[in-house]
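hiii so um. not sure if this is the right channel but i have a protein structure encoded as tokens and i wanna go backwards to a sequence. like what aa goes where. can anyone help
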């Protein structure tokens, strides 16, 4: 059965209804047969996403409300409502919210879900280290950067003490 276009949400209703102190994902694209991932993320006042590198995906970032800065290898770019940024794969990037917080939409190609492969062949040197402390408990994906305060994939807050 073919898919049909439909309205998913109204940002004019979503953003004001969320508490200004609430951080993380306010909305996620959840349609089963989608080819894209999209999230509306809120960074509370003076919140940040640590500098990290995304090697697999280009990301479009649209600022919906608030202001802040997009940090990269070449410095810092100011962000305000209506700013549209391209974050090319392999670029170093981080975000800092201004005093009123920052709400933004990210859109990128859908990542395949994490799978469980069969056991790896035994190799000299013993077992590989356990990496469970680096997995986001909200979306199940590996942290993009150790000790990041928010998951780079879903935007949910992370335990800063976990990870390496």
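sure thing!! here u go:
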């Amino acid at each position: 059965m073919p898919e049909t276009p439909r309205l998913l949400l109204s940002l004019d209703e979503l953003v004001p209804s969320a508490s200004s102190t609430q951080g993380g994902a306010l909305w996620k694209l959840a349609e089963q047969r989608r080819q894209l991932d999209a999230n509306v993320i809120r960074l509370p006042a003076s919140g940040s996403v640590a500098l990290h590198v995304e090697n697999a995906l280009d990301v479009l970032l649209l600022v919906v409300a608030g202001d802040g800065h997009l940090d990269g290898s070449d410095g810092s770019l100011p962000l305000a409502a209506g700013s549209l940024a391209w974050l090319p794969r392999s670029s170093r990037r981080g975000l800092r919210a201004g005093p009123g917080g920052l709400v933004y939409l990210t859109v990128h190609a859908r990542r395949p879900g994490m799978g469980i492969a069969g056991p790896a062949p035994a190799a000299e040197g013993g077992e590989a280290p356990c990496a469970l402390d680096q997995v986001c408990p909200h979306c199940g994906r590996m942290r993009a950067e150790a000790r990041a305060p928010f998951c780079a994939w879903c935007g949910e807050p992370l335990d800063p003490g976990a990870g390496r």
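oh and The longest strand covers residues 92-109.
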